[in-house]
Amino acid sequence: MFVTISKKIANFLNGTGPAPPIAKVYNPPIPQPGRFPAPPRKRHLPPVRDPTAPPVAFDPALKEQRCVSRKTLRREQRTFVVSQRILENIKRRRVNHWHPQPPPKPSVTDAPQLEVPVPFEVLHQQALTLPQLGDGGDDLDIFLHQLQILGNQREMAKQLSRARCELNIVGRRVKEAAEVKARKKAEMEQVERNIQEMRRKRKLTEKKIQKHWDRYGRDKNFFKHESIRFEGGGKGHGTRWDPIQGYIPTHPPMDDPAAKHARWEEHRAAVQQNIERQNAEWAARDAARADAEAAHQRELEVQRAQAEAQRRQAEYQRALETERLRVQKAAARRQADENRRAEERRLAQEAVRRQAEAARLEEERRRAEAAHREAERIRAEAARLEGERIRALEAARQRSEQARREAERQRAEQEQRQRAAEDARRAYERRQAEAARAEAERARQAAEQSGQTALEQRNFKEYGMKWDLLRGGRVNVGEVHFFQVPWPVVGAINSVDQITQPAMEMFIFHQDRDGYKGRSRKEILKMEILRWHPDKFNNTVIPKVIPADVEATTEGADRVVKILTAMMETA
């Protein structure tokens, strides 16, 4: 339903469909005070006796005709009085008792047709944005003239406002549909429960009355039959003693039992008819009360609708008057603002002119002072530069002398270190050559025996041994060459270009490398990064490298660290 009405509104706004119908407004009835009295308090009702029954059970005139005692008569008399009082109370309750009525149907009336004007803010804005009309007219005249021109849009604005109202009503009804349905269902269930409870109470009361009548009749027959049965024996009223027959009755027997039973049946039918008549009267009275309440509710709905229409019309008139006053005040305020802005512009221009004159005079004064300060500064700067030039010449002479002496000392030390390094290098090369020849011979023999695997194992062992020698301090300063550094590659290298990532991966992650079996790639890389850490390498290995190979060794170490970092990121 909501989608259908939305499509109708969209078609109407696009000009391809008619205006949507006016919605039916649901005005729920307002509960009135005192409409539903409180239900009576539950209490046990004792047996009831019909007051119209003949008082044969306790009539003193029949005492001589019945063979009963005074105790029995008093008990029957008390029973009759209590029954009569209870019956009167029941009648009084039934007259004032609340009978449940079905809830009145909700009244549905058409929404009041109120003209919704176009918002004055929108029209005023449109009027002010259109070209000016005439010469010499103020904004209010222009606004009123534009309102006349835009009069054809008034109906469109009303239809649009009505469509929006319809859309809001439909949305609200859709949201409240489930709640209203549940509330109505609960009310109907409560009314049904009340009706069932009243029926049960009425039926129970009638059963109690019938049970009392049956019991009362049985008691009377019991007393009658008992008195007749005991007329020939037993001491009591209405008897005399005979030496031969014993106790014999002195009064005639009571009425015929069949006639007495018929009389009681007649009384019971009369009581039942009286109860049905009262029920019919109560039903008619309840129906009349319900009709009166429904008429009263309809009258209240009409009055509320009229009051709502009057209220909306009054609000519309107040809105028109408020908008007219607002437009007038806005025009006056706008004129005052223009006058104020013109005066402010004049004062601002005057202030700007005075400020410009004061700024010009201040600028001339500052320029004169700046020229004087600049001349003083130039003289002071010239004197300072002359003194600094003299001091700089003296300091340069001293530094050149000191540098000459330091250069001579360093040259002598360098020559001494070079001679020592050359001697150490030649001795180391000689030892290395001999060791290389011996190692080559051993490698040749090992290669012939175990092939390439032994060579790789030897490289792994040399790698660890070289690191142990370098970190253990058993290598002197300036004795290690570039090719003697434990590079993480298979075989010996002679240049930095031989250090590549594939060669390092083949060496580092080799499966036969001792001490690294069963470890993950990240663990192996962490151990190698700790070995090749720049700070540790520069403090431990670089001082032991000969000066000629320091640069190549540093470059190779940097390349190893970069390759290890890259492999760690991709591991």
Short description:
The chain contains eleven helices and four strands, in the order αβαβαααββαααααα. With 571 residues, it is mostly helical.
First CA to last CA: what distance? Answer: 63 Å
C-alpha geometry: elongated
Q: Classify the beta-strand content into a percent band.
A: under 5%
| DSSP helical segment count | 11
| Total count of strands | 4
**What is the N-to-C succession of helices and strands?**
HEHEHHHEEHHHHHH
Low-confidence sequence ranges: 19-49, 53-59, 62-66, 95-100, 105-137, 218-237
Q: Which radius of gyration do the C-alpha atoms yield?
A: 63 Å
Quick one: biggest sheet? 2 strands, antiparallel
Measured as a percent range, the helix fraction is over 70%
Average pLDDT taken over every residue: 71
Q: State the secondary-structure class.
A: mainly alpha
Strand order, largest beta sheet? 1-2
Region (Disordered): 284-306, 401-455
Coiled coil: 174-208
Keywords: Coiled coil
Biased composition (Basic and acidic residues): 284-302, 401-445
Output the keywords.
571 residues, mainly alpha, two-stranded antiparallel ribbon, 70% helix
Describe this structure in words.
Keywords: Coiled coil. Residues 174-208 form a coiled coil. Residues 284-306, 401-455 are annotated as: Disordered. The protein has 571 residues and is mainly alpha-helical. It has a domain at 452-570. Helix content is 70%, strand content 3%. A two-stranded antiparallel ribbon has the order 1-2. It has a two-stranded antiparallel sheet with strand order 3-4. Strand 3 (239-242) and strand 4 form a beta hairpin.
